[in-house]
Amino acid sequence: MDTILAVKDLAVEFATYGGTVKAVRGVSFDVTRGETLAIVGESGCGKSVTVQSLMGLIPMPPGRITNGTATLNGKSILNLPAAEANKFRGVEIGMIFQDPMSSLNPTMTIGDQIAETLKVHRGKTDQEAFKIAVELLERTHIPEASKRAKQYPFEFSGGMLQRAMIAQSLACNPAILIADEPTTALDVTIQAQILELMLELQRTENMSIILITHDLAVVARMADRVAVMYAGQIIESGTVDDIFYRSSHPYTLGLKQAMPSNTHDRDKSLSPILGSPPDLFKPPVGCGYCARCPYAMAVCAEHLPPTTKISESHEARCWLHHAKAPNIEELHQLEDQDAG
Amino acid sequence: MLVRTEKLKKHFTIGRGQTLHAVDGISLTIDENEILGLVGESGSGKSTFGKALIGLHPKTSGEAYYDGERLPKRFSTKDHLHYSKQMQMIFQDPYSSLNPRMTVLDIVGEGPGIQGQQSNSEIRDKVAFWLERVGLSADHMSRYPHEFSGGQRQRIGIARAMIIEPRFVVCDEPISALDVSVQAQVINLLDELKQSMGLTLLFIAHDLSMVRYVSDRMAVMYLGSLAEVGPSNDVFFDPQHPYTQFLVESNPEPDPNLERRRAFKPIIGEITSPVNVQAGCRFADRCPKVIDRCRVETPELITLSGARQVACHLFE
Lengths: 340, 316
Ligand SMILES: Nc1ncnc2c1ncn2[C@@H]1O[C@H](COP(=O)(O)OP(=O)(O)OP(=O)(O)O)[C@@H](O)[C@H]1O
Ligand SMILES: Nc1ncnc2c1ncn2[C@@H]1O[C@H](COP(=O)(O)OP(=O)(O)O)[C@@H](O)[C@H]1O
Ligand code: SF4
Ligand code: SF4
Ligand SMILES: [Mg+2]
Ligand SMILES: [Mg+2]
Fold this sequence. Notes:
Chain A is of the alpha/beta class.
């Protein structure tokens, strides 16, 4: 397989008044050309910090990358000096955010901002750059692109801003687009438009996408592969079918059962996951999910479960996969039901 | 029927002689002990409708009735006191809707305090009861909102509303700000309160799957007007109004096989501005089935069969 991004054992901490937040605690994943990898998990589990460290966007201090490597096409990208980070950020990896306003200049027209990227990174002249900017806006289906290019961010709706951000990220033909909750603030109809646009561009540009979301339904629509994060670690990863139809970690199962599925009867009540995620100031020594897990055993609180290979494509980090663990029939039954 | 509105309008004057038609003539009923789900795009007027209904906004025109009584056009302080014993609202944002400088006891006990008929120890007991009832603990009373997670804060908001033992509660996006794992806790709690206390709820939300799951009937709003109303399953599985059809089609499901099979064509364009709205169907400029009449004549909500209603010229 054509791996373009390889992240290994990434660990990130933040020094705060309250102590050290261990935001990311040993995360490894690969991204291959043209695929969509979804990183899913609840708020605060370290999704954004993971990708921000790849982009060189972690504020240091208080942040610190304490361990790990990340290579893009074989070249190391962690802890680059600022000048080098600037050259690669947005060029080889593009990124869009939940709140596009936060990364746009409110005093500059949308067209000029995209043109600026083209001038800086691709050496285009003013005129060329603006012309390409308009083409990029057209490619993201912004109506009347040449008129819209002369407008300011505040004149754009949320959906249009997200299109403009995507247009800007395309300016340098990045190999990877990182989208951090790109549709969380949007209505479901506009979300559908943006997701469709991302899929279309992925096909035409053969771009890889890392999609960060807390929404399993969005994952089901978009992802080829999925990494489920919990308390700063990836606790399960696999193809989208592995994750949805052969869930092998109690947290993944819990998430699925907490959501209404439209094949379920209304009288079947939802099963919430009780409690809340652990405090990352003092992350548990054992399994991060231990305090909320209905299957927790004595070993779980004491020792971090190893990553078990379930199939060629599928891994889970849970003691239940240990040879000596009790047979988890309940887990398998639930799986079968959901796959049916 | 516990709640009814008739051609309820709430317009805002926004300067330069412009009028924003946030709610533009909504006629809706909510039965006793029913959960009515209200869905629609951001800015379609859901919150404004909920607020105008329970007197948090003065009405521009039209009527609202509660338990057969006509509600005043503009609530006086006395009206607020009187009706807040019956009608309450739970807000979207569990972070900003609780005063950070008040303890949980003060926040939850504020209601009965205003009502003024109870001693401090009675209020304390009641707060303790309600904290336990929503799945928190009486020990939480002396803590401040920032010491709680999002789901816990939302429960504090629910306890604050429920301690008054209202009959009708407007829940404005009570779960939107919560993680999936926690949403189910709040939904189950609301459902349980409905069953045990005979509550009636207006449940405003973006999440179509969740609304289908919790509500008995579903109302779809578009640009200040109702597009479709009916039993939740019917509206969700067999939408009639062209807008509802797009909405359902856009709603992703946590099922990759289903998503791969979905023939997918997102709706084009975006919701138009509710400023200075002209006659005609609110959805005309995005509707693939638009006919000439749609641009000049506003469709009325008509009854199709049984409890199903739709506002579209194609059904007349
Ligand atoms: N106090 C106000 N003054 C002027 N305009 C207002 C006011 N409150 C709401 N509006 C406008 O009324 C329209 C409806 O707003 P409302 O908050 O009811 O929408 P909503 O359907 O609840 O949206 P969301 O899903 O984003 O919560 C919007 O265009 C909004 O900007
Ligand atoms: N600049 C920062 N300073 C201190 N803590 C931070 C900072 N950025 C993130 N964190 C903490 O790191 C953890 C992971 O955050 P994040 O990656 O943003 O989560 P999410 O999965 O929601 O994207 C959280 O506990 C968060 O509070
Ligand atoms: S390791 Fe133990 S606590 Fe963690 S998910 Fe598996 S069974 Fe549950
Ligand atoms: S009235 Fe006309 S424009 Fe409106 S939804 Fe029906 S067909 Fe479409
Ligand atoms: Mg984040
Ligand atoms: Mg609202």
